[in-house]
């Protein structure tokens, strides 16, 4: 899923300069990636959870793939795939082994599990030749926990892919389309709509969001809705049953599953609310900004690099339903200020996170790495 959703358009762009082979788990996401990006794909299963036998199988498959393809560069972007890919690439003699840390798990774990995760990331970095943190917060954590002593370079202000500003453009969604969606979801034009996009799990702050919104809905005389776009997850970090039941039963909370095109949902919303516990550099906040939405985010890596408190959104402490309630009430009570924040949000994305800027930074980095490798021979 990651390679399909995190790198939209980038592989097609890079394929104009290199032969690109995309490797990920088999399924419709990989098929969709191949069709959209026009690149060759190879299915290799890599599970998110630790599974010794499957991980060993994946490592061997990657090794033989790299021996066969003889790539000059292998670039990985997720934790498990990163460790397996960097090890396999090193064993196979790939000269340039690149990993981008899109988010770190170990700072938010404790005890034995944290030690295991730190050891895995240190091993990944030893196998890689070049490390790229997705943002300043990720870079600081890599340094703080002494994950590697290799240089850490942030490309193009941090985000791994940037935003397609032509695609995420509020002007592309007409009023008829907005009205139709509002009618389908039972949303009035008078409703102030908070939107959340992502997995409905604990670490995304969904419990705090439910508590804050319930309180807001009880206390406010203004009509308000909470629109949740994303699936409940049953394997990782499952929500408590009472929260799931509360979300499903609340008359002003609207649940929809994963959406292929989220633009029209942004277009009928007034603000993004994103109370996550941890992120790398969240695309959701960038996409919302591109759609003229201000955001309420937590003071964590990535989010606090996109949002300037009071300018294009509000930053609150993580895991605080009370602070989240205060921020949501402030948004609800100040519609004119919120509209101005939304305009600032679009401007911030235009100036810093346009996908063409990011793609060119990746291209230039690849070319520099290849030149350096050639001169060293």
From TrEMBL:
Signal peptide: none annotated. Keywords: Transferase. Residues 6-132 form the Glycosyltransferase subfamily 4-like N-terminal domain. Pfam families: Glyco_trans_4_2, Glycos_transf_1. This is Glycosyltransferase family 4 protein. Residues 179-346 form the Glycosyl transferase family domain. The keyword Transferase applies. GO terms for molecular function: glycosyltransferase activity. The lineage of its organism: Bacteria, Pseudomonadati, Bacteroidota, Flavobacteriia, Flavobacteriales. InterPro entries: Glyco_trans_1, Glyco_trans_4-like_N, Glycosyltransferase_grp1. It comes from the Bacteria.
